[in-house]
């Protein structure tokens, strides 16, 4: 893929795919129908992301808090994730896409873990769209894990506490090596992060959409990218025209 650096195009888009349950409920169907329909939206979104020229797409598929749901719903979601990856792997590999999982691996069933690890292993050297799937992911748990890893290194005398800076913490998160998301999209009308990439989204642009995830379309994806292009990212500094007006 020919990558042109254009500041109007986000490098990394992360999506909180929310509203499957409400989509189903509104149609008098069980929640699992919504999750199943949500898989189609994932397929559309990956295709749109590939065409858009972004480099990284992160999808929040299952949070560490989602275990609080009934077992049959949890099992159904896990099954859908494993099946989706298994089914699409050949196709995505041919398209030079790379797969990566973030989240806590312990606690996942052997089946889903294997699907994720096979996909990671097979696509490791691909250079096209990098798709990150967050499964059993919780940002606070991830940050606590980084703190533990750093503390162990200090205790073993391999790290000086004074060397613990923002970069050191970043390198101990699941997302080590990935750029921070430029744009976070959440569907379903909720306007919160729900423990998703709290460290990494410090300066991300947020776009909240009223539609439920199964209704998310390629047009909505491109409209969110247009919205991003209209935003003025300042990172605490002044925007270019304002900086030009200062007399120092
Ligand atoms: C998002 O849809 C999918 C997951 C959290 C796994 P929900 O299942 O949260 O749907 P709502 O929010 O209940 O409508
Ligand atoms: C966030 O959605 C998790 C995923 C989309 C996987 P939730 O539905 O779990 O979030 P809350 O509970 O509404 O905050
Ligand atoms: Mg939800």
Secondary structure layout:
Elements (H helix, E strand, L loop, with lengths): L11 E5 L3 H6 L5 H22 L3 E8 L7 H24 L3 E5 L7 H14 L6 E8 L1 H17 L10 H6 L11 E4 L18 E4 L9 H13 L9 H6 L3
Parallel strand pairs: 1-2, 1-5, 2-4, 3-4, 5-6
Bound molecules: 3-methylbut-3-enyl trihydrogen diphosphate (2 copies) and magnesium ion.
What would you say this structure looks like, in words?
The protein has 248 residues and is an alpha/beta fold. It has a single domain, classed as Decaprenyl diphosphate synthase-like (Undecaprenyl pyrophosphate synthetase), CATH 3.40.1180. Helices cover 44% and strands 14% of the residues. A six-stranded parallel beta sheet has the order 3-4-2-1-5-6, with helices on both faces. α2 runs parallel beside α3 (71-94) and α3 runs parallel beside α4. It is globular. The N and C termini lie far apart (43 Å). One 3-methylbut-3-enyl trihydrogen diphosphate (IPE) binds at residues 16-18, 60-63, 66, 190, 192, 194. Mg(2+) binds at residues 18, 205. This is Isoprenyl transferase. It comes from Martelella mediterranea DSM 17316.
């Amino acid at each position: 893929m020919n990558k042109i650096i254009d500041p109007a195009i986000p490098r990394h888009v992360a999506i909180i795919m929310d509203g499957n349950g409400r989509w189903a409920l509104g149609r008098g169907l069980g929640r699992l129908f919504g999750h199943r329909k949500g898989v189609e939206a994932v397929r559309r979104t990956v295709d749109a992301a590939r065409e858009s020229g972004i480099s990284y797409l992160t999808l929040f598929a299952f949070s560490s808090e989602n275990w609080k749901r009934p077992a049959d719903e949890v099992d159904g979601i896990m099954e859908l994730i494993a099946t989706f990856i298994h089914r699409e792997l050949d196709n995505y590999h041919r398209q030079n896409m790379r797969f990566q999982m973030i989240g806590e691996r312990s606690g996942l069933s052997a089946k889903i873990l294997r699907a994720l690890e096979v996909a990671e292993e097979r696509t490791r050297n691909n250079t096209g769209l990098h798709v990150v799937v967050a499964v059993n992911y919780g940002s606070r748990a991830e940050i606590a894990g980084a703190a533990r890893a750093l503390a162990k290194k200090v205790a073993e005398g391999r790290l000086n506490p004074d060397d613990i800076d923002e970069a050191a913490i970043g390198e101990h998160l699941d997302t080590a090596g990935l750029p921070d998301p430029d744009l976070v999209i959440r569907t379903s009308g909720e306007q919160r992060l729900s423990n998703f990439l709290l460290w990494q989204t410090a300066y991300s642009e947020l776009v909240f959409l009223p539609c439920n995830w199964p209704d998310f379309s390629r047009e909505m994806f491109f409209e969110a990218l247009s919205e991003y292009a209209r935003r003025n990212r300042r990172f605490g500094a002044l925007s270019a025209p304002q900086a030009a007006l200062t007399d120092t």
